Amino acid sequence: MTDIFVAPKKNPIAALDNKVLKTKIPLVEEKPAVSQKNLIKTVDPYSLKKKMGLLSSFGVRPYGVSFGEQGEDEEIFLFLRRHIVTNIPWLVTGLFFLLLPIFLFLIFDSSPLPFTTPMNFIVIFLLFYYLIIITFLFINYTGWFFNIALVTDRRVVDLNYSDVIYHNMAVTKLNLIEDINYVQAGFMRSFFDYGDIFIQTAGEKLNFHFMAVPKPARATEIIQNLMGGDKDVWS
């Protein structure tokens, strides 16, 4: 009688596993890590600049900011203005006097005066009254908005506007700065992070005082870096 042999069945899953194991998987070559400073150098510097807002008080390498005496290759690295919270006192004062006539009208309307006042006189008085209040608000706003400090790669520029028709610009070169420090004292200044920066120049040159500016520690560090020739300054 002929012997009958049954061939063992092959496991397709095991065969597939052996095939996968025999396949050579190429190793992924690890690339060296790129430092942040080298990464910044490979990116277009203008793409990292931030456009200043209308009410901004602090800006590092601001985009769209310039001044009349700026050199052709001169770059602005720091923009400073008094912190916006310093406007609260005169804003509250102006708002109080703007609403004062309304409160007085409500009070006297409930208890009429023993004498009558001509309506023409009241209208003229209110016009002059609100003109004074609006002038008060306008002067305080322009005094905050136009008094700024700029630090470029060459110099420090302090622009002061006392009123609409008078302004003054003080300038000193970075290599003439002898000392720079800041003072940040009090709860409000620590909470909102603003303080005073004092720059002392050589000889009889003018000293610079930037009062109540935001982030005084960061601003001082940026100026010190520029004095040392380090221009890798970003926000």
Describe this structure in words.
The structure is a single chain. It is built from 7 helices and 10 strands. It is α+β, with helices and mostly antiparallel strands and 235 residues long. It starts with 11 loop residues before the first helix and ends in an 8-residue tail after the last helix. Mean pLDDT is 80; it is low at 1-7 and 34-48. Helix 4 (88-110) runs antiparallel to helix 5 (119-145). The chain has 2 domains: 47-66 and 74-82 and 147-227, PH-domain like (Roll), CATH 2.30.29; 88-143. The strands form 3 sheets. A 5-stranded antiparallel sheet has the order 2-4-5-6-7. A 3-stranded antiparallel sheet has the order 8-9-10. The protein has helices at 12-22, 36-42, 45-48, 88-110, 119-145, 187-192, 216-227; strands at 50-51, 58-60, 62-63, 76-81, 148-152, 155-161, 167-173, 177-183, 194-201, 208-214.
List the helices and strands and how they pair.
Blueprint: H1 12-22, H2 36-42, H3 45-48, E1 50-51, E2 58-60, E3 62-63, E4 76-81, H4 88-110, H5 119-145, E5 148-152, E6 155-161, E7 167-173, E8 177-183, H6 187-192, E9 194-201, E10 208-214, H7 216-227
Parallel strand pairs: 1-3
Antiparallel strand pairs: 2-4, 4-5, 5-6, 6-7, 8-9, 9-10
Helix pairs in contact: 4-5
Structural key phrases:
disordered N terminus, PH-domain like, 10 strands, 38% helix, 23% strand, five-stranded antiparallel β-sheet, alpha+beta, single chain
